[in-house]
Amino acid sequence: MKPFKYGCVVGGENFCPRPSLEKQLQEFAADGQNLVIQGARRMGKTSLIKHAIGNMRRMRLIYIDLYYISSLADFCARVMKGIAKSSEEMSFLKKAVQFAFRLRPVLAIDPRDGSTTISVDTRAAAEPDSLDAVMSTLEKIAADGKTCIVFDEFQDILKLDNANGILAQMRSTIQFQDKTPYFFTGSVRNDMMSIFDNMDSPFYKSALTFAVDEIDPAEFSAFIAARFKAGNRKIAPSVIAKIIEFADGVSGDVQQLCEALWETTEPAAAISSDDFDAALDLIFSRELRGYETIMERLTPSQSTVLRALADDPRAKVFSIDFTSRVNMPTSSVRRVLTRLVDDRHIYLRKDAYRFSNPFFREWIRRA
Asked: What is the pLDDT of residues 10-26, one digit of tens each?
């Protein structure tokens, strides 16, 4: 089996241990402390949470993914889906169905994999009182203080109509659940700040901030070397350092590059920097259509700025040098950057705009 996995939640031997963060998360969960868990995309937030909470005795995890949520009905459906995946105890799931009766839920077995599912009536879930029904369900099934509820990519709730009203209604339920820890994760820092740091937001100062940054390079290097060894390959520390630098320390991207290096080398090979091009070519071939689609949808101004950032990832984007290079005034550059961030092609991290996908950056640079 391949020694590296990416693009999915990982556990077991595929998870790089982060003992300090795991311990902190477990302590906060045990205390019923609400957290805002922030970190760049593909930094391993979800894997970390699931690993840490999953290793707690008698603590259930309800994971609710809000990525690109589209409507209130979609929100309700995702909550019930998260509940269904949280437990194999039929008595627990039947209680959840009873509590959510206003959504007309149906408990069933998915014939594809045998997992339990809970579906809701789309029309009922679109009704104004559906949010109260689903939040009340979460409150009741977590009343024993042995459940951690995670809302992943929580900032996407801002895309919904009447987002502030929805947040206010959620907050009115959550604030009285002092035994239930709610973890809110997000990869769009500005949006998460507008929810939790804006005085006009219903969630203002409602949770502690918990940062998930790069894995310690020494720990990550040891993990990577061990995984290559498990895959019958050798790799020098200097090459591992180059991998981590290329991927800006983002764990998901590091693992993707490692997988490509493993895939393009022979058993018992000693991997070197000379193997990078073949690995990158493999990644480019897998993702080419997606890259082309992105470029086709960009405006000329967006394409120009993106290419300039690919050539100089640490560019001071509002400097005279950069604005002259892209032939735009500062105000236009600012508008273009805002749009590129909104479309999630780039993000702001440590005062520099980074590509959400470093392989896309390299593909543009080589084009």
From this structure: 888 889 999 999 999 99
